[in-house]
Input
Amino acid sequence: LFDKKISGIFFWELLRFDISRKILIKKWLITEASKKVDNKFIYIIKNIWLLFYNSTIWNPIFSKNKAIFIVGHSRRQNINNKFSDIYTDFIKEKLLESNIWYQDFESLTFTRKHKRNFSSASGNILFFDLFEWLSLVFSKKIKLSDTEIELLNWLELEIKKIYDVNIDIKELVISKLSYFRTLTKYFRILLKWKAPSFIIEVVSYSITNQALNSVAKEFKIKLIELQHGVIDRYHLWYSMWNNKKQLLNYFPDYIFSWWKYWNSVCNYPSNCKVLD
Output
């Protein structure tokens, strides 16, 4: 499946992690994260304003030409009344001390509570909201060929046979790949225009970062992911299970791990180096 393309996209690489989570949720082995909202109307109004604000005032088009792009974690911690990215802020502080300038970004801000009350290390942060919003609204649905439909029907039947759950793979493929393809167009414009030397990211398996990674690979821009949680052979973004030679196309070039233990907890994609 890793070698199969749909509309020119390696669909299994994009969806393997999501599909595994859907299976686990349907089998009641994990629960789906839920967000409690006290007042839906106020929640919607606030987030529409935040989306508009981030898409106009703080959008990626206004980024300066910096050698380093940093894509932080979308869930920040409130430390001393400032929202801090515990994974990247210390790197930004070191860069500032060395007079090395960077541009930092975040995505998925539409669902966040905080605004711009960030730590000093994130003073120039911009958001991918504009790209994500445009991709949601203007993405043109991909059309599946007969051969592709046959493949996805087979996959649905295999999942049903092995796990006894029903998952609409075709709808998931159409939705995700249409969005992914549109996102890559906007990232292609950004990276061609700004031309960073390398990109540091925290969560490489979000659909936004996968699209960013895809375009970065086209332009030979190196990608570094910072370990942000537990990795083991059951984490189906990092673990290639028993395959030691699997290449991935939307995966970072390097993972900076917490220490040596994490460098061999699973078979990572063979075209990625894990460094502690």
